[in-house]
Amino acid sequence: MKNKKHNCRCHSKPGSLFIPAGVLLGLGIGFLTGNIPAGLFIGIGAGFALFGVSILVKK
Fold this sequence. Notes:
Blueprint: H1 18-33, H2 36-58
Helix pairs in contact: 1-2
């Protein structure tokens, strides 16, 4: 097989995986504490914060 270069951007920004990971962790924390909406907001906030930090570190 020949090596083909793909022009997709799916692996160029791995920091974007922090957002759904934060949501899922927040959902789990929300289930444990009994307050799902607060857990989701905390999770998505942490995901966006880690995404921003990963962009700053990458530069």
